[in-house]
From TrEMBL:
Stretch forming the signal peptide: none
Cofactor: Mn(2+)
GO biological process: protein O-linked glycosylation
Pathway given in the UniProt record: Protein modification; protein glycosylation
Protein keywords: Disulfide bond, Glycosyltransferase, Manganese, Membrane, Metal-binding, Transferase, Transmembrane, Transmembrane helix
Record InterPro entries: Glyco_trans_2-like, Nucleotide-diphossugar_trans
TM segment ranges: 49-67
UniProt name for this protein: Glycosyltransferase 2-like domain-containing protein
Domain Glycosyltransferase 2-like as annotated: residue spans: 185-296
Length: 301
């Protein structure tokens, strides 16, 4: 009996001890969690603070940079160009192309050194870019539109070497350019292009480019299936004594890969891509080559 009550008491006491232990451990856990929560919050705020400070620093840096006078910035960047130092940076931060001030490309009172003779109206359709009036309901016109997307029937009526109006600003005629220019390869990619638009593109480049700088015209055929772009084209370009070349893709590649194939085959120093149904106008090439020449000259400094 005594022993029993002793054991009971013992067991009761044990229960209390356990309860207290559980209680105290629960208290300790909630404290620990709180501590963690505070720490996490603090950490979060620290990150926020650091991010905020970083943004402020960026703004300060930007303001300081923008605050520089143009002379200061020119001194930092363009002096490398003009002074000819080896750490030349091709892109100045004010967006100006370093070659844009070419002392050898000059505006004078006299007509430019590459100005060609005036183009004259030969009296045939489309001369000087004049519109050709035709009945849009003609079956040939409808067929041309459905096959090529534009009126190749009219294009076929126009001379391959037709004259064009001078659409430039008047000032363009008075610019003088250096003559030691790089050579150019003109790459023309096409797929099932109409005959006369394609060949007029070629003729216009040949007619209006100084032969000193036009090394070649590369026609890249992106797997056309039209009959006029096969042997007929190969035979036609033979009259140009090798200046006009034809490359053919063995499968359809798409415009950009076709242009790339043309560029890989190009032998000149500069590659120019043209659409297959356009015409270049007078003195088109030299103003494109002169800044490249200038840029290459600066690079060598
Ligand atoms: Mn086009």
């Amino acid at each position: 009996m005594n022993r029993f009550s002793d054991t009971r008491e013992e067991s009761n006491r044990l229960q209390i001890v356990i309860d207290e232990k559980v209680k105290s451990s629960g208290k300790a856990m909630s404290l620990k969690r709180k501590f963690h929560e505070i720490r996490r919050l603090f950490r979060h705020q620290t990150i926020q603070f650091i991010a905020f400070a970083f943004v402020i620093l960026c703004v300060v840096f930007l303001l300081a940079t923008l605050g520089d006078s143009p002379e200061e910035r020119a001194g930092e960047h363009l002096s490398h160009v003009r002074g000819g130092r080896s750490n030349y940076n091709p892109i100045s931060d004010n967006g100006e192309l370093p070659g844009s001030e070419d002392p050898e490309t000059v505006l004078k009172d006299s007509l430019g050194n590459f100005e060609p003779a005036e183009e004259i109206d030969a009296g045939t359709p489309g001369e000087l870019g004049k519109p050709v009036q035709i009945d849009a309901g003609l079956p040939e016109v409808k067929r041309a539109f459905s096959e090529f997307g534009f009126n190749t029937h009219v294009s076929d009526m126009i001379s391959m070497n037709r004259s064009l109006p001078d659409v430039r600003m008047d000032q363009c005629k008075y610019w003088h350019y250096p003559e030691d220019l790089p050579t150019a390869s003109v790459v023309i990619a096409f797929h099932n292009e109409g005959w006369s638009p394609l060949l007029r593109t070629v003729h216009s480049v040949l007619k209006r480019s100084d032969p000193r700088y036009l090394k070649e015209i590369i026609l890249v055929d992106d797997f056309s299936d039209k009959e006029h772009l096969k042997d007929k084209l190969d035979n036609y370009v033979q009259q140009f004594n090798g200046i006009v070349k034809v490359i053919r893709n063995k499968e359809r590649e798409g415009l950009i890969r076709t242009r790339t194939i043309g560029a890989m085959a190009a032998k000149a120093e500069v590659v120019i891509f043209l659409d297959a149904h356009c015409e270049v106008n007078r003195n088109w090439l030299v103003p494109l080559l002169a800044p490249i020449r200038r840029n290459r000259f600066l690079e060598k400094l």
